[in-house]
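Supplementary notes for students who missed Thursday's class. We covered one full example, reproduced here. Read the sequence, then the structure, then the short commentary at the end.
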Amino acid sequence: MCFWGDKVGAIFDSFRRKPSAARIGMMRRVRIGIVGDYDPGYISHRETGVALEDSGGRLGIRVEYDWVATDSVAAGGTGLVAAFDGVWAAPGSPYRSLEGVLAAICFARERGVPFFGT
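Structure (token representation):
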């Protein structure tokens, strides 16, 4: 029987190991679309990019990110998030467009695009 703590420990152990050259070569750049309404007054918004860059650096991956406004997704469709390797639904609701953030989440989930929500 495997306990949840064992699974979490294994995941963290995999991140602590130095990435192999093959892994770095395959994943040298990742683009993340942060769907949310950026507000410099939220510390979580200011620090999201720093966290992504730091995490990528620890894994030997260059992380690029762009904020995508929820009302832009609602007006322009999910094509705005299609160019990204992953989607992050930023904290800070209420969103200007709940429809926009839900469309981005559905897009990611229905197409197997890595998704993270906070």
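Commentary. Confidence is low (pLDDT under 50) at residues 1-5. Residues 20-117 form a domain with the Rossmann fold fold (CATH 3.40.50.880). If anything here is unclear, bring it to office hours.
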